[in-house]
Amino acid sequence: MKALYCQQNSSGEEMTFIFQERENLPPTGDNDVKVQVRACALSWIDTKLLSEVKLEKELLPVGREISGVVLEVGRKVSFFQPDDEVAGILPLDSEESGLCEVVLVHEHYLVHKPEKVCWVEAAGTVRDGVRAYTALHYLSQVSPGKTVLVMDGASPFGTIAIQLAQHRGAKVISTAYSLEDKQYLERLRPAVARVIDVSNGKIDVAESCLEETGGLGVDIVVDAGVKLYSAEDESTSKSQLLPHKHDIITLLGVGGNWITTERNLQLDPPDSHSLFLKGATVSFLNEEIWNLSNIEQGKYLCILEDIMEKLSSSVFRPQLDEPIPLYEAKVSMEIVQKNQARKRQVIQF
Predict the structure, then answer these.
(1) Which residue did the predictor score with more confidence, 257 or 52?
(2) pLDDT tens digit string along 54-110?
């Protein structure tokens, strides 16, 4: 059996992805489930986070979001039996590559996959679903009547976040980074309240949001990165499209929640004072917390089950690319690691 791994020779160097022949799987542990993988989604590998939590190794397994069929269960496994269809996310410290025909997983990282949900959708939605639930249910409380701004709503995560917020009765505003993104967001049903096209850099996001909310501001902001410095200090074209941190503080309403993906966010005293006057909060979105600590394992499994149920009932309609065969996984993973894929890439076995 072959499995895909990534190799980083030294800091700052580009990763290389290699298929490596695997030895036979170890015996199934008491709480382990042996799964025949049917689909595995590709996600960007956060080497910085792995280094910070002391999980960096010479060969990192690739592919963690899987769906498949149970082949065998350990003697203490109580949730699953052979031939069950399952989906889940391999833990951050897993030695297993999801891009392998058969993997061993602890039962607490898997949930049943509904029959109506296809393998590719299950694997391709599970991570974005966990991110959306973390942002909108645990870092903030989305509810009917609230206004939510989802930045870059046409991304795979943005799409699921919009659908979850709308399902909970919230009014959603979103930003688009291109004409194609704008058209995609305008086709979504239920409709997004307002699509703000920021591709030409001329539209003020804060002004548009205040106009849409009658000057009250939005209740929840889920960003896709923010501009920390003035325009001349930002180098990449993508960062030119991001809102400045001051814009986000301006468009937040009283008691608002700002959910940020910017791990290096710096707030100056005037920024903090503005947030204090509004009674607003800033939270950092890191969905890996569910796997880094087992203290909330029950909640995590409930989230995974809810994601599968929403896929089954078509509440979630993910932004997926065409399924990719295993022999193209290496090339696809290189594209994902360079952040060049606009749709979720899923390998189908």
Answers:
(1) 257
(2) 877 878 999 999 999 999 999 999 999 999 999 999 999 898 999 999 999 999 999
Q: Are 196 and 175 in contact (CB under 8 A)?
A: yes
* Integer CA distances (angstroms), 141 to 25, 126, 193, 295, in order: 43, 20, 19, 21
Question: Which residues, including other chains, have CB under 8 Å from residue 44's CB and lie 6 or more apart?
Answer: 336, 337, 339
97-119 pLDDT tens trace: 999 999 999 999 999 999 999 99
Give the single-character DSSP code of 259.
E
* pLDDT score, position 129: 98
Q: H helices within 110-267, ranges in order?
A: 119-133, 156-167, 179-187, 205-212, 237-241, 245-251
β-strand 32-41 against 65-73: which pairing, if any? Answer: antiparallel
Predicted structure pTM score: 0.94
Beta strands 171-176 and 194-197, pairing class = parallel
Question: Do residues 66 and 4 make contact, with C-beta atoms less than 8 angstroms apart?
Answer: no
- The DSSP call for residue 296 is T
Task: Give the SS3 label for residue 234.
Answer: coil
DSSP assignment of 59-102: EEE---EEEEEEEEE-TT--S--TT-EEEEE--TT----SSSSE
Of 157, 106, 153, 98, give the one whose Cα is nearest residue 285.
Answer: 157
Question: What average pLDDT does the segment 235-245 reach?
Answer: 73
Alpha-carbon distance 7 to 14, whole Å? 9
What one-letter code names the amino acid at 24? N
For residue 192, count CB atoms less than 10 angstroms from its CB and return exposed for 0-12, middle for 13-18, buried for 19 or more: buried
Separation CA 83–CA 71 (nearest Å): 6
| Cα angle 90, 331, 132; round to 5 | 40
